[in-house]
Amino acid sequence: KNCSSNSRGALIVLEGLDRSGKSSQSSRLVSYLESQGHAVELWRFPDRNTSVGQMISSYLSNKSQLDDHTIHLLFSANRWEKRSVMEAKLKAGVNLIVDRYSYSGVAFSSAKGLDVEWCKAPEVGLLAPDLVVYLDILPEKASERGGYGGERYEQLEFQKKVAHCYEVLRDPSWKIIDACQPMEEVEKQLQEIVWDQVVACQKGKPLFNLWR
Ligand code: Z5A
Ligand code: MG
User: Fold this and answer.
1) Which residues form the Thymidylate kinase-like domain (predicted)?
2) 20 C-alpha to center of ligand 1: Å?
């Protein structure tokens, strides 16, 4: 292991449509990194445990109604309230595997018609991921998986719009994995992609802020 003072954990984000396999793959990845002796934690957004997270959860389960801008800012606030802990963990050498992040925030809100730049603004200054992995699946294929639950956004027509918004956001640094492959295959490809970043961050790769 590299012992330089700038050694840190990697911030790895998994993105993708509903049912693309983010949660399944995030936990498999965490187990893998643990088995290899790395310090690692599984995080997810929204984090429904905070008071902001509870407002979000109530909105997603249709128990409350909120203006589109308001819920967008709550999702963002939910990331801001975790930012300092996130930075401390990374600096302490803990790798963070994060199930959804700012890209979900922008993709889902802009899919409702909000301006992309307006959606990005509150995310500026959050920690930039070292790696964004997009689990790629057609909305039609995703909707066949176990059926959508009853939460807001879990509808095929809306998911098609979200898919388009993710395409607009996607940049060349993203790693795209075909999420229609068997779970074990996705898992293997993910392990290979993530390994390089974990090593680079151990060697002291600098940490940046988002969208500055
Ligand atoms: N949202 C937002 O609007 N703004 C924000 O800033 C953020 C989020 C952060 C809740 O998110 C909603 O919040 C979400 C976006 C919005 N709304 N939608 N849509 P969430 O993360 O809590 O949503 P979730 O319900 O936990 O997860 P998910 O995205 O629906 O699914 P997933 O994690 O991608 O998939 P999975 O649970 O791992 O797998 C789904 C099923 O597919 C399951 O039965 C698996 O066994 C199966 N599966 C997985 N992989 C495979 C493969 N390879 N083959 C076959 N079957 C598979
Ligand atoms: Mg999930």
Assistant:
1) 14-189
2) 6
d(Cα 189, Cα 65) in Å, to the nearest integer? 40
Measuring CA to CA, how many Å separate 97 from each of 4, 94, 111? Answer: 23, 10, 25
Q: Identify the residues whose C-beta falls under 6 Å from ligand 1.
A: 16, 18-24, 45-46, 60, 75, 99-100, 104-105, 108, 145-146, 153-154, 179, 182-183, 186
Which ligand minimizes its atom distance to the CA of 14? 1
Tens-place pLDDT, residues 161-187: 999 999 999 999 999 999 999 999 999
Ligand nearest the Cα atom of residue 104: 1
Distance between Cα 144 and ligand 1 center (Å): 13
State the DSSP string of 120-178: HGGGTTSBPPSEEEEEE--HHHHHHSS---SSTT-SHHHHHHHHHHHHHH--TT-EEEE
Give the Cα separation of 11 and 95 in Å (integer). 6
- What is the side-by-side strand order in the sheet with 40-44? 40-44, 95-99, 11-16, 131-136, 175-178
In this predicted structure, the answer to whether residue 2 has a pLDDT above a threshold of 50 is no
CA 188 – CA 191 distance, rounded (Å):
5
ipTM greater than cut 0.90: yes
Rounded CA separation 53/47 (Å): 5
For tokens 């949660």, the residue is 23
